[in-house]
Amino acid sequence: MNRTQESESTTQQNDAATLLADFRNYLMKGALSPEHFSPFDQLINQLQEMTEKEKIRDEISSLRTQFPAIGSEFTMQGLAFVKKHGYAGDFEIIDKIYTQYTSDHPEFRTWDQFFHNQAAPQAVRNRKTYFKETLQKISASCADKEIHVLNLASGPCRDLLEFFQESGDERFRFTCVELDAHAIDYARELLGEFAHRVTFIQQNIFRFIPSEKYHLVWSAGLFDYFDDTTFTKILSRFIDQPYIIIGNFSDVNPTSGYMELIGEWYLHHRSPSRLIGLAVNAGFVADHIHIAHEPTEINLFLQIQR
Prior knowledge:
Layout (H helix, E strand, L loop, with lengths): L2 H26 L8 H13 L3 H12 L3 H4 L4 H7 L8 H8 L7 H12 L1 H23 L5 E6 L5 H9 L5 E6 L3 H11 L6 E4 L14 E4 L8 H9 L6 E7 L6 H6 L10 H10 L7 E5 L5 E7 L1
Parallel strand pairs: 1-2, 1-4, 2-3, 4-5
Antiparallel strand pairs: 5-7, 6-7
Helix pairs in contact: 1-2, 8-9
């Protein structure tokens, strides 16, 4: 290492130490007031961009044991990190994003408000709206006596509940493939009087093979946990389906630093061209492929319609 490199390394270390000290100071204040949302967000992004990521992650891991705002399931970002159901993006945290849950504890509430103010949770809520609007379009254009939708990794099913409540179309039947038995139990209870319109299949997506054609195959937030090889392998199983929509977070996600550093919540972010390429690799015709997005343009939707 030459003197220039040594100097740059020392500067990086000093910068990281300063940023981590600022991070600790925010935590020590307890509550996070709205005027600090933006500067704290900028601080996280600066930490994410540092080259000494392992050291930074170790320091933040140490802080989690001292500050429940980031280290316990009592706040949204703590819940993301703890992964109480064993995996990232579980049904509980997704439903709390949908409902904009905030703690009753006055200090923790401010951190929950910060969480929901982030772009990614907003995109997730927009994704729910996008799904319901898609179902309404199918309802208006389809003359069939029954409309059957396949929902992959269905999670809490609040989107279905709201659709049932808002739509008078009783032709819809949903088949939900979900591995987590707790998610299925939660969804059934949440759906209540509408539960009879949903069939749950508790199965790993890697073993699921569709046995019929659906009016829509929908996946809100499953495929951005897959690497490219797995993405194309699973998508190719639906090559005969007439209409498919796959959600995937864009590679332009301003919340990625927050998700990864605080929540250790990792996704495979993809560009529109990357999604199109993966669909083509899975055997679909390019002319049948379209990329849509919700208002923040963070959550992309790979649409394949023959």
